[in-house]
């Protein structure tokens, strides 16, 4: 049987990588993405802890030497506590956040976690849409949680639902 090469779309030449595990070698690119996507949410020492801490998971997608997206969290007694999701502003709305977050959730499940939790700003509709699309539901609220006074919604996911999520190919149109 011959393979029909015309039936498959070739990969886009500027496609980001599949999500890859990140470690301290990604410190500079992670800080650069943080500045572009989140205005410098974490300090260098916080990034060192996130990328080097035992029990921490962090995945990212690259295009060449540039980190385009990342998702990180801590494994704590059978639960993944999501700490950060970031996507380069010029790459948003193309599925990268969903891909990298799904990879993180699947790895946490593979390592024995049964649940995932996170806090998201009540005013961040885009992030709430991403999390809701993956099955997260709001279980509580922390009033005036963020520096700017925004409340944080506490969201929860049973990881058994992660297997049901299909990761779409990113859009380059």
Structure description:
The protein has a single domain, classed as Gcn5-related N-acetyltransferase (GNAT) (Aminopeptidase, 3-Layer(aba) Sandwich). The radius of gyration is 17 Å and the shape is globular. The two termini are 33 Å apart. The N terminus is likely disordered. A seven-stranded mixed sheet has the order 1-2-3-4-5-7-6, sandwiched between helices. It has 173 residues and is α+β, with helices and mostly antiparallel strands.
| First-to-last CA distance | 33 Å
* Stretches with pLDDT under 50, minimum 5 residues: 1-13, 164-168
Overall tally of domains: 1
The biggest beta sheet reads: 7 strands, mixed
Quaternary assembly: single chain
Summing up helix and strand content along with how strands pair, one would put the structural category as: alpha+beta
The name of the CATH architecture is 3-Layer(aba) Sandwich
Query: How do the SSEs run, as a string of H and E?
Result: EHHEEEHEHEE
User: CATH superfamily, please?
Assistant: Gcn5-related N-acetyltransferase (GNAT)
Mean pLDDT: 86
How many β strands by DSSP?
7
Strand content: 25-35%
Q: Provide the gyration radius in Å.
A: 17 Å
Strand line-up of the largest beta sheet: 1-2-3-4-5-7-6
Number of helices: 4
User: Helicity range of the residues?
Assistant: 25-40%
The CATH class assignment is Alpha Beta
Overall 3D shape:
globular
Kindly identify the CATH topology.
Aminopeptidase
